[in-house]
């Protein structure tokens, strides 16, 4: 990277654009020159595109042909730290840098000068006559000191029509001004009093704050059982970062969670932080992007891509629920937000807090190896104690066909209903039934475009493919044999379980929580609040409920199928089951009543089930670590998944075979290649998928070897290749 910071008019600069080219393009610096990192608009053929001044031009062509940068945009230039970060992520994930730039500029209208809108303040003039309505408007403006309102806000606050306000403007009693639409975020005050901390919490806070004050990079794994106050603790680290005048970012896995979280931030710091997620409007996104860059947003709460916002001085990144698989992005750039948070912080001298009740084995191992500091919160806040965990041995239960709630679980739920407490029945499957079978011909209804079954969603009265999202109406006749009335659901999903619960407990009020049942995050939040207030006797939920919601009246968790995720081809199957079961169980007994978790299982002796029940977490991790070490798989070895896809299976396999034969660059670093084999989901959206797996020793330069390995490939027509470094999901 160049050290030249400024380019005079006419000097050649290299501009990185988000266009799919594998290099930067040379342009002449515009009138007035430009800084390194400046966001610019450049001509590309007949178009104008966004770019960033990446360094001095490469030259080597007829300079009289060089075109000029059209204009420099009115936003803060990209900081060097960000350019380094994007470059490193590109190298790590084997992503072309232009795709990285797209990630870093995910806000529309960056080039526009901020649009203006009218705002209203108290003026100096006196109205010719006073009416009640006019008095109210002036009172509102006086009550709020110097604050400005939009016309709509002011009219609403005062309970008047906008013409009343306009009338006052004419008289000079109210002042109308133009103001940029992207306003700074309200100031967060770290010195407002926080909660009184327990001894455990205070000790963790003082370590985190001391780390924060060093101003240097460092990562801490904050492990604490659900309800131990991890959030309270890391908010104090945020406070310390803010006190030092630095910015903080809190990453959350699930947008549904942000609402509850924002309320807590507001209670602690007196105002709401900036929010960044896919549900935000374009205007909101642009405001966040700009204000973060100007330093006028102290705290951002967001989804994984918030990591690519142009922070001016990022001092802390919190990754909450750090084990959550949604931190891994699996389309476009394949990156792990957790790992890249550590990378970004190392570059800019920020602290990282990875918070979880059930950390990933990766983070656990990094703490064991001394790379991360580890802090434990061992007890739940207040009187709350961890739930008692017990198996229900399904081999011994008398089950009616087509039912999934065992007599033992039924009895436990009944007890709770009688005591006015809540129960949660957990099943990690959306829809009514995972399989729809024709009893005449034996065929299961599959997606036309994917190698996957269609899942019945009775609420929607449709079949849905969970791979590609395709839906179709539930047919009356079998699509294979044409026989009518023989289609039958097989196995339970959340909707079917709810049906069983309604029949079994007719006196109970039942609420369902599944990500697909709510049109918006707001509707989901409302439902969660209702449940938390006690407005349900039985909650039936999918994975969604495992994530950090507080239900104080909940004292029983029944896991319908604890064996469900135990047997995957996935190397993390045991880890995932362990995490999920413990997270779900952690929902019970959060207030003053003790909770119980009952796990329905056909294999109570399975080592993972035993580890879950005994609560011996360290034991589980040690055993899991030893197993992975012996197999040489992550985090004790490196892996990459290569997926080739195309409309015809033959050519896809041909390339896969050629790659497997020409594996010299991999062998040089001691890596092995497995496959090609049909990917676990062999067809998605009509494309056949073939997978190769690369396994390498821990320290091996796997990216470099893979880059050399795939460089000679010429993919014809519609063939695609994607590389996933450190794959999390094998599909
Ligand atoms: P975690 O993030 O570990 O699940 P939380 O921070 O959400 O835990 O805390 C669980 C509940 O206990 C929350 O309602 C929180 O407000 C409350 N709580 C935790 N610590 C304290 C404290 N020191 N004082 C008052 N309330 C607390
Ligand atoms: Zn499909």
Adjacency order of strands in the biggest sheet: 12-13-11-14-15-10-16
What is the architecture of the largest domain at the second tier of CATH? 3-Layer(aba) Sandwich
- How much β-strand is present in the residues? 15-25%
Tell me the overall shape. Answer: globular
Radius of gyration of CA atoms, rounded to a whole number? 29 Å
Give me the secondary-structure category: alpha/beta
Count structural domains: 6
Mean pLDDT: 87
Let me know the number of strands: 31
How is the biggest beta sheet arranged?
A: 7 strands, parallel
Present as ligands are:
adenosine-5'-diphosphate, zinc ion
EC number: 5.6.2.4
InterPro entries: DEAD/DEAH_box_helicase_dom, Helicase_ATP-bd, Helicase_C-like, P-loop_NTPase, PriA, PriA_3primeBD, PriA_3primeBD_sf, PriA_C
GO molecular function: 3'-5' DNA helicase activity; ATP binding; ATP hydrolysis activity; DNA binding; zinc ion binding
Subunit structure: Component of the replication restart primosome.
Description of the structure:
With 731 residues, this protein is an alpha/beta fold. The chain folds into 6 domains: 6-104, PriA, 3(prime) DNA-binding domain (GIY-YIG endonuclease), CATH 3.40.1440; 116-180, Winged helix-like DNA-binding domain superfamily/Winged helix DNA-binding domain (Arc Repressor Mutant, subunit A), CATH 1.10.10; 199-279 and 298-377, P-loop containing nucleotide triphosphate hydrolases (Rossmann fold, 3-Layer(aba) Sandwich); 383-429 and 493-633, Rossmann fold, CATH 3.40.50.300; 431-491, no CATH class; 638-725, Ribosomal protein S10 (Alpha-Beta Plaits), CATH 3.30.70.600. Helix content is 31%, strand content 24%. Strand 14, helix 10 and strand 15 form a beta-alpha-beta unit. Helix 3 (132-143) crosses helix 4. Bound molecules: adenosine-5'-diphosphate and zinc ion (ZN). Residues 195-198, 201, 224, 226-232, 381, 548, 550 line the site of adenosine-5'-diphosphate.
């Amino acid at each position: 990277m160049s050290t030249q910071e400024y380019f005079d008019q006419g000097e050649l600069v290299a501009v990185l654009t988000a266009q799919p080219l594998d290099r930067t393009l040379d342009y002449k610096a515009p009138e007035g020159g430009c800084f390194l990192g400046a966001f610019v608009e450049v001509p590309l053929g007949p178009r104008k595109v966004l770019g960033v001044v990446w360094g001095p031009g490469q030259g080597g062509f007829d300079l009289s042909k060089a075109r000029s940068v059209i204009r420099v945009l009115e936003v803060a230039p990209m900081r060097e730290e960000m350019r380094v970060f994007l470059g490193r992520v590109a190298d790590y994930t084997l992503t072309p840098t232009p795709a990285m730039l797209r990630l870093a500029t995910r806000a529309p209208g960056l080039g526009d000068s901020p649009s203006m809108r009218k705002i209203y303040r108290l003026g100096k003039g006196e109205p010719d006559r006073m009416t009640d309505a006019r008095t109210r408007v002036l009172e509102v403006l006086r009550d709020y000191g110097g604050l400005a309102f939009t016309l709509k806000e002011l009219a609403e606050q005062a309970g008047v029509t906008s013409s009343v306000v306009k009338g006052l403007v004419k008289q000079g009693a109210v002042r109308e001004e133009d103001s940029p639409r992207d306003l700074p975020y309200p100031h967060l005050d770290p010195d407002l009093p926080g909660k009184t901390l327990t001894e455990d919490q205070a000790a963790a806070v003082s370590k985190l704050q001391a780390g924060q004050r060093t101003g240097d990079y460092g990562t801490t794994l904050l492990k604490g059982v659900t309800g131990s106050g991890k959030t309270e603790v890391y908010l104090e680290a945020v406070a310390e970062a803010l006190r030092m005048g630095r910015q903080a970012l809190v990453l959350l896995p699930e947008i549904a969670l942000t609402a509850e979280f924002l309320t807590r931030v507001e209670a602690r710091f007196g105002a709401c932080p900036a929010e960044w997620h896919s549900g935000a409007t374009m205007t909101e996104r642009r405001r966040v992007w700009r204000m973060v860059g100007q330093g006028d947003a102290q705290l951002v709460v967001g989804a994984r891509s918030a990591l690519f916002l142009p922070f001016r001085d990022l001092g802390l990144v919190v990754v909450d629920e750090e084990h959550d698989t949604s931190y891994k992005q699996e389309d476009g750039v394949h990156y792990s937000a957790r790992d890249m948070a550590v990378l970004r912080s190392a570059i800019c001298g920020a602290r990282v807090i990875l918070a979880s009740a059930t950390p990933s084995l990766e983070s656990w191992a990094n703490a064991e190896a001394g790379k991360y500091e580890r802090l434990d919160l061992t007890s739940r806040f207040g009187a709350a104690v961890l739930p008692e965990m017990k198996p229900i041995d399904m081999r011994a239960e008398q089950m009616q066909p087509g039912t999934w709630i065992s007599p033992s679980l039924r009895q436990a739920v009944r007890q709770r209903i009688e005591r006015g407490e809540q129960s949660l029945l957990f099943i990690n499957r959306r829809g009514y039934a995972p399989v729809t079978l024709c009893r005449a011909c034996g065929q299961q209804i599959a997606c036309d475009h994917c190698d996957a079954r269609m899942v019945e969603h009775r609420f929607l009265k449709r079949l849905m493919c969970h791979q590609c999202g395709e839906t179709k109406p539930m047919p009356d006749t079998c699509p294979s044999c044409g026989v009518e009335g023989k289609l039958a659901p097989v196995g339970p999903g959340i909707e079917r379980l709810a049906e069983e619960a309604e029949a079994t407990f007719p006196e109970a009020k039942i609420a369902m929580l599944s990500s697909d049942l709510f049109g918006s995050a707001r509707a989901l939040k409302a439902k969660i609040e209702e449940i938390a207030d006690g407005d349900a006797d039985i909650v039936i939920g999918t994975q969604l409920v495992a994530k950090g919601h507080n239900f104080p009246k909940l004292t029983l968790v029944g896991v319908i199928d604890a064996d469900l995720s135990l047997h995957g081809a996935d190397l993390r199957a045991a880890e995932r089951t362990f995490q999920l079961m413990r997270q779900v169980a952690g929902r019970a007994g959060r207030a003053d009543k003790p909770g119980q978790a009952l796990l329905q299982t056909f294999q109570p002796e399975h080592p993972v089930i035993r580890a879950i029940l005994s609560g011996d977490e360290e034991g589980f991790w040690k055993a899991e670590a030893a197993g992975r070490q012996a197999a040489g798989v992550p985090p004790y070895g490196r892996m990459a998944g290569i997926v080739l896809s195309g409309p015809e299976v033959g050519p896809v396999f041909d390339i896969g075979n050629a790659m497997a034969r020409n594996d010299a660059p991999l062998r040089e670093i001691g890596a092995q290649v497995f496959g090609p084999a049909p990917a676990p989901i062999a067809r998605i959206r009509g494309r056949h998928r073939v997978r190769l797996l690369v396994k390498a020793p821990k320290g091996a330069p796997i990216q470099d070897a893979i880059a050399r390995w795939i460089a000679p490939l010429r993919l014809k027509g519609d063939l695609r290749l994607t590389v996933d470094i450190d794959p999390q999901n094998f599909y």
